[in-house]
């Protein structure tokens, strides 16, 4: 049958080309390349050197977290991405709508608000995270989710690891810093998925002795790491992960967000 002979010829041609690729090392090189890329995605991460007591990593199992202000669903997805990566989502009670009587409130000020525009006027970045206030100020209305994923990483306790030539930043604790990259979320890749480096970094964060909340997740057992020798606390005015002091206008905007939802 002509159709059968044609199909058989196509099959033989495919098998022949596959064998040729294996013989030349083409297929092997492709597999090795994917493996090497996976290795490169890990190994370079860092933790913030400040605001340790306010990190979301400090929250014990069963904590309730509610989101106030703008872009609540996108912020919820970003928070879940980080908690999923360390297996803590199921033990948190997340909500939107700035739920009353919930102590842990994540506040987001969108880029269109006047206070955000004033804050972002002279800054070339997607946003700012004020960890002690658990607040995010957005500076762009594009790439919203990647920016929220990066800024919520700060709320968890992750620092910026992007190359200094892109945007100088020195907010990493030298005791908990392994290197810089441009391919991870905390390396300002503006991607929508956590990389191997992001996951490795936040996983290491959840095994630190000096993050007291970790012991509650591990049945009281101790972890590797130095006790209380890193993670200096910021005193005085609220300061962002980038070292920006919160203005009175921004603080008022955060209070307004709470008032809009009828909760304090």
List keywords for this structure.
264 residues; alpha/beta; Collagenase (Catalytic Domain); 5-stranded mixed sheet; two-stranded antiparallel sheet; 8 helices; 7 strands
Q: Your description of this structure?
A:
The chain is α/β, with parallel strands linked by helices. The protein has one domain: Collagenase (Catalytic Domain) (3-Layer(aba) Sandwich). Helix content is 38%, strand content 12%. The chain has eight helices and seven strands. It has helices at 2-24, 26-40, 72-85, 114-120, 144-156, 196-205, 213-217, 248-260; strands at 46-48, 64-69, 93-96, 104-109, 127-130, 135-138, 172-177. Strands 3-2-4-6-5 form a five-stranded mixed beta sheet, with helices on both faces. Strands 1-7 form a two-stranded antiparallel sheet. Strand 2, helix 3 (72-85) and strand 3 (93-96) form a beta-alpha-beta unit. The chain is globular, with a radius of gyration of 23 Å.
Shape: globular
Q: Unreliable segments (pLDDT under 50, ≥5 consecutive)?
A: 1-40, 222-235
Helix-residue proportion: 25-40%
**β-strand amount:** 5-15%
Strand order of the largest sheet: 3-2-4-6-5
Please count the helical segments: 8
Query: What do we call the CATH topology?
Result: Collagenase (Catalytic Domain)
Radius of gyration: 23 Å
The total count of strands amounts to 7
H-E string: HHEEHEEHEEHEHHH
Instruction: Give the CATH superfamily.
Output: Collagenase (Catalytic Domain)
Measure the end-to-end span.
Answer: 79 Å
Count of the domains: 1
CATH classification class: Alpha Beta
Helix-strand category: alpha/beta
CATH architecture annotation = 3-Layer(aba) Sandwich
What characterizes the major β-sheet?
Answer: 5 strands, mixed
Mean pLDDT: 78
Oligomeric state of this protein:
single chain
